[in-house]
Design brief:
Length: 485
Amino acid sequence: MRAKGNRQLLFQQAILTLAVLGCACANASEIKQLRVEAGTTGTRAELHLDKASTFKLIPLSNPERLAVDFPDSQLARGLTLPHAAGVVTSVRTGQPVPGTVRIVFDLGGKVRALPTTLDTSRSGYTLVLEWPGDGAAPATPVIAASPDNASATPVTPMPATATAASLPARDPIADIARRSASTSVPPVAAPVAPPPEVAQKPAIAQPSAALPDAPPPIMKPALRPGTRPLVVAIDAGHGGQDPGAHGLNGTREKDVTLAIARELARQVNATPGLRAYLTRDSDVFIPLNLRARRATANKADIFLSIHADAAENRGARGSSVYVLSTRGASSQRARWLADKENAADVIGGERVRVADNTLTSVLLDLTQSGNMKASEDAADHVLGGLKRVGNSHKPDVERANFAVLRTSDKMPAMLVETAFISNPDEEKRLADPAFQRTLAASILDGVDAYFSRQPPPGTLYAARAQAGQSAQAGDRSSIGAGGSP
């Protein structure tokens, strides 16, 4: 009888154990997809899960690796591992302890990952890891803070910056974006002394049917030793589940802004002394308050948010440039536009915090007061570049409380409405790669003019200005000594 009772007890314990294990498996998150891509801003890894999960980041050296542990998780059946891309040379999986899945990214060098984000959507969660660089070779870390510092500390899932639905296997950008983006952006070469001709300003490209759809990359001279490139942060407005405005023919703002941003990045990277950083290089949603913060993390010197305007008046046309204002908008139109653009986070599923207007204005004044004048100066130059190609809608820089500019307190920042997508003629032009090149060149002309007049120390622009001053001083000395002018 006692033996029979022991067998029944063991059987009950086994049933209980199986039930507990079954419950644990039912609650475990499943890693459904892994993807690694390299772009102009660096290397990006996406890990798609069916539900929220905690994770650990474990940086490893000799050789360089980044391990990500997911407790209470499992791999989806038939999951395929991605191929090498950018700084990621291979991807492996393992199980350090029962119930924990480990994803190991083998790296081509000492490259720190940017802070991770856990994106949420109805279809699951997406963990995003970003290694900054040129997307083709190991890069030097560009930010001081990184998750490497905390070793294997569990990280709490963060709010959404993209959705699983908005991160498909291939870039879903429309044909207009693919045509303009087919050109790769050349990385900055090794430092050598530039020849004298690099001091020339970038030329403004005029739209023409004879221009090719995809111009070849322009190789530029490298920087001289002891100088750094000026980083131009280019923010393609909207993205992912936030398409922005629509044209009558179905053109989406998020597609044309990405196409123009990519073309501007190509031209910036072809300009001596400049380097581009794209806040997004694919069709993903990024909260407004994170866009300028990404630029700051990549040590940007200027922030340009690219958009396409829309109005009920189908005849409205031309470009406009806006800067941040914490004390009211410069016009009713500017206020309306800021409200429309600030609603992007609601469309993307972000929680919008409502704070006391007086307190918010005071805090913004404190952080932005020293930066607004620089933003206005830079915006004046960019608007001047747009005017020189006859594409200006507003004669002066406008001001309003744009959320995308509120966190840009460490650099000049502006929002550029390139053209009216609601105007049938301009919608067609926005989809034309030749017109995209013209817009990009006019914006770059303004950026170049701004930095030429106010060059930051330690840059090629500063060295160029100093050389010009020395030449002028030499001319004055020669005249004073009796030489001919």
